[in-house]
Design goal:
The structure holds 2 protein chains of 2 kinds. Chain A is mainly alpha-helical. Chain A is built from 14 helices and no strands. Chain A has 2 domains: 56 residues, no CATH class; 217 residues, MetI-like (MetI-like fold, Orthogonal Bundle), CATH 1.10.3720. Chain B is mostly helical. Chain B has a single domain, classed as MetI-like (MetI-like fold). Chain B contains 13 helices and 2 strands. Chain B has a two-stranded antiparallel ribbon with strand order 1-2. In chain B, β1 and β2 form a beta hairpin. In chain B, α3 packs antiparallel against α10, α7 packs antiparallel against α11 and α12 packs antiparallel against α13. Chain B is flat. Classes of the chains: A mainly alpha, B mainly alpha.
């Protein structure tokens, strides 16, 4: 009996690891590829030897760095993602607080309306958005991009924050009101400190989406030379003879910041999901 | 969820006349708190949404100062677009394929990843590995898979050759390319579904399993009656979000196959972009946008009502 159980565990783990490796194969392929020359990538896609690496070194990275115009692209992307994320977290948590904590019909209706907006595809509104931003004077400006990113990520953020705050005990705020707190200080002093896990969830979901965005920045930052990282990376697509090594190096540099953020926030991420989204 | 703690229940609602000054003041402050959200959403989502509906009734090239009202002509003439039905059915097949594969695979992967105990590999490491592709941009995933699918130089044909099989033209074969982009999309979306399923699995109280064991339920019975039923909310969320994402998908199929062969893998989203930014036919582009929005909304509502009903069974 015990032996059979052991065999089952080993077989199960073996299958799981095999599947995980299969999923990671493309990642492995492009990570080692970024240190190899084109010929080696094509001929020996999954092997890596020291002579292959030493002849290329970081040349691929250096070239991709120039080609994407890394400095300005990185600054723009970080500016857009950072500012939009701040707006999303502030507005989203305020709205979630009200919707979760004040039981009025109008707030519930507003919530349903916001949730409904999540199904609207961005590309469906792209044409009028471009027309609108020329009218508002935000076409080709970072500000326009920031506001649009913030607005389109807000409904999901409100959904997360509302779900999370509905799960917090009401005694918390009652104690605050009895002690003479106003609503804003109940929000600031009692709720805000508790929001770390769901804020991490929100930052990963919304932040990754904004950082990786191509559609918004490519259509609304048309006249800017190097708009954002993903627009820069997209230059590796389309050319007849792509230098694979350059593309891989560019992909790695553009994606690394989000991977680092995920590593730091991972602990909270699952917690926030358990507490917030799934119970909705 | 089923087990609702007393403290999480909603505050009892009072009729308007009975509201205390405290409650009234709270509602006013509440509205103030919502103002920034309303402004952002109103200006950047609702306004363009109304605009796109209005634009769909006009013939406009985006530059001229005059717009001529054409009624429903834009919608009618959508079917005259070359390859329209192929694009429309392709979009539906793509979305259905991606949703089904992603949700089913990720469900079983999550079951495997949820198991704990001696002799098993560190779970948080494995979980992070599964989530890794989700951190990549759809643009990046597209470029990556395009390189891997390449007929002469791609790694997939390379491996096939090593195994003694014939190379496949992944990017320009009817019937094959569609599945090629579905596989790439599933790869990109699996991790998110796995994480949500894991969160759902963790919120099932272990007492249920213990009680079922005492009552003599078999492993299969425990799975269907506890795991599968209790997972209903996460299944709802995953089916909904995956299908919505699939219908909205633009960058990935564009970079992998660029719509080829013919209109086989050209999704409606790509056609909207072409009409709006290449053909400068804003009226028809808007009409197609309205069609896509309506389709997604209807499909989401149907899914939601069906899946919610399933949730209510227990």
């Amino acid at each position: 009996m015990k032996k059979r159980r052991f065999v089952r565990i080993v077989l199960g783990e073996f299958g799981l690891v095999l599947l995980t490796l299969l999923i990671l194969l493309p990642v492995y392929y492009f990570v080692i590829g970024s240190f190899k020359a084109r010929m080696d990538i094509v001929k020996y896609p999954l092997q890596i030897t020291w002579p292959m690496v030493s002849s290329v070194g970081f040349k691929n990275f250096a070239y991709a760095f120039d080609r994407i115009k890394m400095f300005s692209a990185l600054t723009n992307t970080a500016m857009i993602t950072g500012s939009a994320l701040v707006i999303v977290v502030v507005c989203g948590s305020l709205a979630g607080f009200v919707i979760a904590r004040i039981d009025r019909r109008m707030f519930r209706l507003f919530y349903t309306f916001l949730i409904g907006l999540m199904v609207i595809p961005f590309i469906g509104c792209l044409i009028p958005l471009v027309v609108q931003s020329t009218k508002l004077g935000t076409y080709n400006t970072l500000l326009g991009c920031i506001l649009i990113q913030a607005a389109w990520n807000l409904p999901f953020a409100v959904f997360l924050f509302t779900g999370f705050m509905r799960g917090l005990p009401k005694e918390l705020e009652e104690a605050g009101y009895i002690d003479g707190c106003s609503m804003i200080s109940v929000y600031l002093r009692i709720f805000l400190p508790l929001l770390a896990p769901i804020t991490a969830t929100c930052c990963i979901r919304a932040g990754v989406g904004m950082w990786n965005d191509y559609l918004v920045s490519s259509s609304l930052l048309n006249g800017v030379q190097t708009p954002t990282l993903m627009v820069g990376v997209s230059m590796f697509f389309g050319a007849r003879r792509t230098e694979y090594g350059y593309a891989f190096a560019g992909i790695i540099m553009a994606s690394l910041p989000m991977i680092v953020m995920y590593v730091f926030l991972q602990k909270y991420f699952i917690k926030g999901l358990v507490a917030g989204a799934v119970k909705g | 969820m089923v087990v609702m703690n007393n403290s999480t229940k909603r505050l009892a609602r009072e009729p308007a006349a009975n509201r205390t000054p405290f409650q009234r003041r709270r509602s006013v402050t509440g509205v103030l708190f919502l103002v920034p959200t309303m402004l952002l959403v109103g200006v950047f989502i609702v306004w363009p949404l109304i605009d796109v509906i209005i634009l769909s009734f006009y013939d406009w090239n985006g530059v001229s100062t005059t717009m001529s009202f054409v009624g429903l002509e834009n919608f009618r003439s959508l079917t005259d677009l070359p390859g329209f039905w192929e694009m429309a059915s392709g979009t539906v097949v793509y979305a259905a394929g991606v949703t089904a594969l992603t949700v089913v695979i990720s469900f079983f992967v999550a079951l495997g990843l949820d198991k704990k105990g001696k002799g098993r590999i560190n779970r948080s490491f494995l979980r992070a590995m599964w989530f890794l592709p989700c951190l990549l941009s759809m643009m990046v995933v597209g470029i990556l898979w395009r390189i891997m699918y390449n007929y002469n130089t791609g790694v997939i044909n390379n491996l096939l050759a090593a195994a003694g099989a014939k190379p496949v033209n992944w990017l320009e074969t009817y019937g094959v390319t569609r599945w090629a982009i579905i596989v790439a999309s599933v790869w990109a979306q699996l991790g998110m579904c796995v994480v949500i399923f894991l969160a759902g699995l963790q919120s099932i109280p272990t007492e249920l399993y213990e009680a079922a064991k005492i009552d003599g339920a078999s492993g299969l019975q425990r799975f269907t009656n506890i795991t599968f039923t209790m997972m209903a909310p996460s299944i709802t969320i995953n089916v909904l979000t995956t299908s919505i994402t699939a219908f909205k998908m633009y960058e990935l199929p564009l970079t992998v196959s660029n719509g080829l062969p013919g209109y086989h893998t050209r999704l409606l989203t790509q056609k909207i972009h072409d009409l709006g930014f290449k053909a400068i036919d804003l009226g028809r582009g808007s009409a197609l946008s309205v069609v896509l929005i309506v389709v997604i909304t209807v499909i989401s509502i149907v899914q939601l009502t069906y899946l919610r009903r399933r949730e209510d069974i227990y």
